[in-house]
Amino acid sequence: MPEKLNLSNLKPAQARKDRKRVGRGLGSGKGRYSTRGLKGQKARSGSHKMRAGFEGGQMPIYMRLGKLRGPYSKDAMPVGPHRTHTVAVNVRDLERFDAGTEITPESLAAAGLIRNTRYDLKILGEGELTKNLSVSAHNFSKTAGEKIENAGGTITWLRGEPEPRKPKRKPRAEIPQAEPEPPETEEEAIENPQSDEPDSAEETESSSEADQASEE
């Protein structure tokens, strides 16, 4: 910097870029159409002040995509999000700890396995575990719980063990069906001769009808 500041050595702190001067004749290179090209929406005034998400009048993407429905209006009750974020750690990553160690989200964050403890922790069952550890987490997969307990360790649900889901549809009650009657034996048929009477009556009626038809 010069010793004495005056108009001869005065200049801006950074180089200044001249603005584009359009519509100053054909010789300027930016005349006639003023760098806007020929006809069209972008050649009109106000065309560069379109709202965010405007797609030229067609159905915008925020209307084409599906929505997550829920009570999110300002006057609705505060409800948690539809989707929650969970941080996953496999049992193979717990092998680095010494046997008998009590593992918590804070200890995993200190070891660098998770970034922080703001999100729920879920233990997954990828890999093998040979040490007995006391693991505390918000959720466990079925395989992870079995591997930890088989290695002699224990698991602790930080929000309590979740209840099993109820089936969506109730099973239909089975209608009791009548058992078929066993066929009669020869001795029962002899004791109950009335069971054969309807059949014999039907045979006599059919024979009488046939005789009348032949006589006619």
State the gist of this model:
Helices cover 21% and strands 10% of the residues.
Main attributes of the structure:
216 residues, alpha/beta, three-stranded parallel sheet, 5 helices
What features would you describe in this structure?
It is a single chain. The protein is of the alpha/beta class. Helices cover 21% and strands 10% of the residues. The protein has five helices and six strands. The strands form two sheets. Strands 1-3-5 form a three-stranded parallel beta sheet. It has a three-stranded parallel beta sheet with strand order 2-4-6. The N and C termini lie far apart (143 Å).
Count the strands? 6
Residue share in β-strands: 5-15%
Spans of at least 5 consecutive residues with low confidence? none
Give the number of helices: 5
Order of helices and strands: HEEHEEEHEHH
Main sheet record: 3 strands, parallel
Distance from N terminus to C terminus (CA atoms, Å) equals: 143 Å
Topology record:
Blueprint: H1 61-64, E1 86-90, E2 102-103, H2 105-111, E3 120-124, E4 134-137, E5 139-140, H3 142-150, E6 154-157, H4 186-191, H5 197-215
Parallel strand pairs: 1-3, 2-4, 3-5, 4-6
